[in-house]
Amino acid sequence: MGSRGLIGIDVGGTAVKVALFDLDGRLLALHSTPVPIHTPQPGQAEIDPCCWQEAIANGTRSVLAQADLRPQQVAGIGLSNMIGTVAPLDADHRPLRPAIAYLDTRSVAQAEWILAQAPHVTETTGNRVLPGNTSLAAILWMQAHEPHLIERAATFATVNTLLFAWLTGERRADYTNASFMGVMDYRRRAWSSELAAQLGFDLDLLAPLYPSESTAPLTAGAAETLGLPAGVPVALGGLDGAMTSLGVGAVEVGDCFDASGTSEMVAVCLDRPLACPELLGRWHVVPDRWTLIGAMTTSGACLQWLHDEVYAPGAESATSYDAMLAEASAAPPGAHGVVFLPHLMGERAPIWDPYARGVFFGLTRSTTRGDMARAIIEGTAYAVRHLLELIQERSGVELRRIVMVGGAARNPLWRQVRADVWGLQVVASPVAEAAALGAALTAGVGAGLYADYAAAAGRCAAQGGEVSLPNPAHAAVYDHGYAVYRRLYPALAETMRLAATR
Fold first, then answer.
1. Would you say residue 25 lies in a domain?
2. Confidence of residue 14 (pLDDT cuts 50, 70, 90)
3. Chain-centre distance of CA 24, in angstroms?
4. pTM, rounded to two decimals
5. Quick check: 402 and 257 in contact, CB under 8 A?
6. CA 122 to chain centre
7. Domain that residue 360 falls in
8. Secondary structure of 183-224 in the HEC alphabet?
9. 424: number of CA atoms within 13 Å, CB side?
10. Which CATH number characterizes residue 379's domain?
11. 459 closest CA partner among 16, 19, 112, 26
């Protein structure tokens, strides 16, 4: 039969990526399809699941053609999905309405109701109740506002549950997504009947829990749609953060990775479940591994804003980006005293404040736009330093090295500032499409191609990558800048809320 391949499907907020890898984790082909987000009302964000299905079908056929691989050579398919996105399915696994996306904030009242009805919910689930992050809040909104539609619902499905049902005809949920459903006992790794009773919620409306590597055969109908033979093992997979962790090889205790793009998250592997009120937590795909997570809302988006509004309004130019980064590099560490709060759309960890706003502090007549660009890069690094300090303090794990993935990982200045601010070695992962690779590896483990996740990561997570070491000469200036950064939000929080609420 020749070489075999694994397909990883990564469904994100703006695109669906279908990636084909060989069994050593090398990317053979990639197809990306933009997916529109609809906003029927302010604060609402919805995605039509048919767009996901069409993108997966076209993407699968495309990657096979690109790699000149026969359909019979595909050894498995795995799924990766974004957090907190949920849709109702009927008894035949067909979506009854568009999925409510993680960006959606319509379920604020339902989140508050959950907390009022079950004040100890966070002690059971290990996570905050938040519109967008907590799927149950969106489900309760649908039940309250669309009862005639929802009475036909047999399952409320996260993205991978929906796609798994479409591909295999089976109803399953995984532990990584369940960690943010809002009704799972994180210690027992089981749906909480006690919590469901407090909330009056029927647990039969959620799919039964399975590990991410659990597989079922591709149905004949789905196989025809994708251009594959029936019976190909499909793995349930899980959240994109968990898949990325596997894809970059962060599977052992103390392994840490940072995903930098429009937003940013940092995640550390632990050997025990641990809830921290300022952070998020979830189960890893690796058995008995827990992940402590710090997630900020806007990181690269802050630099994008400066580019679009100050450097090149109305233009999409690589040259103008290069000019912005060159000016940021020319500014000294500490940006001539300018400190930036990167809260352009409220903030998640660790402050969890929807009223938080972006701030440039320390502007003078001599401040340049290069100082402002560097201050944004430094301010986002300060924000993650705060998260890393909390992670280390709560977990007792000492960090020495962080693997960085995402578009920003390719930016030498971005990496170097982070190494200097964090005082840690920063490695740019050479893994292409880490979330899709992690999804593919769940299929490889489920199909028996790898003995376990450690073996899969050891074989497929590429080693090496550009290394940025902290410069001791910059430590003092960044310690000072960080001290200023940490004082700014507490000093301004009440004023931010006053300004936002008029």
1. yes
2. confident
3. 24
4. 0.92
5. yes
6. 20
7. 298-430+466-502
8. CEECCCCEECHHHHHHHCCCHHHCCCEECCCCEEECCHHHHH
9. 23
10. 3.30.420.40
11. 26
